[in-house]
Backbone:
């Protein structure tokens, strides 16, 4: 494959927003999220409508807290996990902003950030919102079983994050800049278990991270934090083994947003969090704020996606993965 | 909303490819498609696998006929109508090319062309493939009813095109150039009939086309052809009425890819073709070849998408539409 790592200049994070559900608000990153709700149905008739409300509220909050109006935003590049990204499409009908729908499963946030960064660096766009949502209740019933069945969860399962995260990228200099990116390819090592998303995505994560360092010439300790999106604990360990087989040793600066967002001992979440909003809420909440206060200066975010549908799983297809990497640096 | 029309410089169509099913091969554009097949199952176990084979064969044929290898392609920006664009994801696992998944329903081809054009004009990418697929049998059972039921089709229904279309964009000067684009927003006038896609999408098409002319300062007769994606005959008439209400009168240079691809008198297709591959196969086949031979010099392509899922329809949501416009001109 051609090298797919490239530098990005003149693209900055103007602001972020995150709204999370009750379980996420009980986790270790609680204080970093902008808002949390006590009822994950948000007073709606369905969890799909609740997910739309999460997504719409997060984008509106981001626009408001930044002192803007819808008219100041050039474009939204957004997605979710629902069939036909219908949650995002119905979110966007409430906003008078152009919309491009993205879908790379839980790697969608990376796709959105990279696309927006290239758009801004082209000089044709100034301010773009990148956002994703996910909801435990909509994802479980779509990809696995009706929640009412109360199926026992398998040891390698993960817990879909109920949240929305949104980032406003801009061409005006700000403290945190987008500096480079690596585009991922679809990789399939034959895993067929829709309850073991970490194993489906780890090969793609290892491939993208290894290529990022090979193509950029950087060493892993260049970054204060290398964070995959939602491999969970078991998936992260697998990813480290796969990377080491290719000669890349990841150290203590490697972590996973899915492993970070929940307390596995007390929260009964299997291997940790997952979902399209896992990386977007952890970045918009925890990582961005740690960069603002200077505790993190260089971060490589690698959202990871498992590319399946209920139909492809029922037809016996294995589940390929994809991962894209985006590097953020405190602008000095 | 902010103006969303912008010029594109230095982006050209290097080549196109289209492979269509038997019904499309019997239609009036038959001779313009690169290849057609006699059996729309293509020897596969399921129609989903057949759609993947259409998509993969079209991309591989495009790469081969252009004298390239996978390694020469920077990126694929592609999508389809299947839940989680699983057909495209499984297509991409066979290709060693970076992948960004796009979803704006049947407007996905426009999203892909615009994103690729901005990527190339940023100077970071040279050669990008934009592609979409759709299949009558996968779309009908996903969005409406199992085919085995033999449900009677309603008068306003359309026939999903079975095909894949792919365009290779490049930064090297060629006869046909991408010149400008208008990004669309999500518009919902409250239509709830999933069998009347034309009415769902016409308001978005009218909005994007009206804004294109208002923002570019061009007149409709600047283009030899203004082609919406898949409004069908009734949807196109509705779109013209909506545009005229906003002061834009469309003349004989307006047509619709869905109205063009089938013969409504002899082919029993309701209002005409639809689907994510309707605009991509008609552009890659008919329009591009008419531009190459000089019969068309300036074309505004406006792929149109209906943003629904089976779940959103069953939950009683109305169906919003979106449309993006891309202008191609023969490079003189």
Residues:
């Amino acid at each position: 494959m051609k090298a797919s790592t490239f530098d990005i200049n003149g693209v900055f994070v103007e602001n972020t927003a995150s709204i999370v559900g009750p379980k996420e608000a009980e986790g270790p990153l609680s204080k970093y999220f902008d808002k949390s709700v006590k009822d994950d149905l948000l007073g709606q008739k369905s969890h799909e409508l609740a997910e739309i409300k999460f997504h719409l509220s997060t984008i509106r909050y981001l626009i408001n807290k930044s002192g803007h109006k819808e008219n100041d935003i050039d474009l939204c590049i957004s997605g979710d996990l629902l069939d036909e990204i219908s949650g995002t499409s119905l979110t966007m009908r409430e906003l008078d902003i152009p919309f491009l729908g993205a879908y790379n499963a839980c790697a969608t946030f990376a796709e959105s950030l990279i696309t927006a960064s290239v758009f801004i660096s082209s000089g044709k766009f100034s301010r773009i919102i990148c956002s994703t949502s996910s909801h435990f209740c909509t994802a479980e019933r779509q990809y696995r079983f009706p929640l009412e069945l109360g199926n026992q969860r398998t040891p390698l399962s993960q817990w879909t994050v109920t949240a929305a995260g949104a980032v406003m990228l801009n061409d005006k200099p700000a403290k945190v800049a987008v500096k480079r990116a690596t585009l991922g390819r679809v990789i399939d090592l034959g895993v067929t278990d829709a309850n073991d998303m970490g194993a489906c995505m780890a090969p793609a994560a290892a491939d993208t991270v290894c290529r990022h360092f090979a193509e950029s010439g950087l060493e892993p300790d260049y970054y204060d934090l290398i964070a995959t999106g939602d491999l969970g604990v078991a998936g992260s360990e697998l990813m480290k083994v796969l990377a080491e087989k290719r000669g890349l040793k990841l150290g203590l600066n490697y972590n996973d947003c899915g492993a970070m967002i929940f307390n596995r001992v007390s929260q009964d979440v299997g291997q940790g969090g997952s979902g399209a909003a896992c990386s977007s809420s952890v970045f918009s909440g925890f990582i961005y704020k740690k960069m603002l206060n200077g505790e993190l200066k260089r971060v490589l975010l690698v959202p990871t996606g498992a590319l399946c549908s209920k139909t492809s799983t029922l037809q016996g297809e294995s589940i390929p993965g994809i991962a894209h990497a985006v590097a953020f640096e405190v602008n000095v």
In short: The domain at 176-330 of chain A is CATH 3.40.47.40 (Peroxisomal Thiolase; Chain A, domain 1). Chain A touches chain B through 63 residues (CB under 8 Å).
